[in-house]
Please model this.
Amino acid sequence: MKILYFAWLRARIGCAEEELALPPGIRDIAGLLDWLQARGPRYAEALRDPSVVRVAVNQDYVGREHPIRDGDEVAIFPPVTGG
Amino acid sequence: MIRVQREDFDVGVELDRLAHGNHRIGGIASFVGLVRDIGGGERVSALTLEHYPGMTEKKLAEIELEAHRRWPLDASLVIHRYGRLEPGDRIVLVATASPHREAALAACHFLIDWLKTDAPFWKSEDTPEGERWVAARGEDDAAKERWEQARASEF
Model:
């Protein structure tokens, strides 16, 4: 599974992209966000308020209940500010 | 057509090209977004736009397709820049061409409103206080919501 971080999430976590094996027992986005938060202080700080974070799986916006599989491209980022 | 690029664009050239050779087109509506020198009350000396390559193009293409579903457009164009920009620089061009002005104007407005809430771009500003990530605005969500309501009332 590939995880991408953008904008201030990338800056706070200190990483733009990482390759991970799907952690055992993690089935959906909500579970993945909880698991990431427990990975270390940078993750905990960046994901302190997960309600402000947007998630895309395979380049489509998804909700917290969306299932994840090994091989997915998961992107985690703040609300977008283009235009 | 969708273009995501670092380089600037020439608005006149792009609009001419959009209607070229198609004499059904009676009007082109366009929106050009520029970098402002003030953000959140602070002076902005530069803006850096980051995006999600791949998803950006995908979302813009979906939004463009939706505009073509809703209005009789003959042509449309969205150019969005990324990288470092300075006040006065062009960020985005949205242009829509149609036999009649109503469709062109409405579709152009729709595209820029949707792009603001759905296209994965993020702005950071250089200010005297340092670099600052731009926060999303509730007004932008409300502007997009108007189009959802408009669609719901059609049925």
In short: The beta strands of chain B are 2-5, 27-34, 38-39, 42-43, 46-51, 75-81, 83-85, 90-98, 121-127, 130-133.
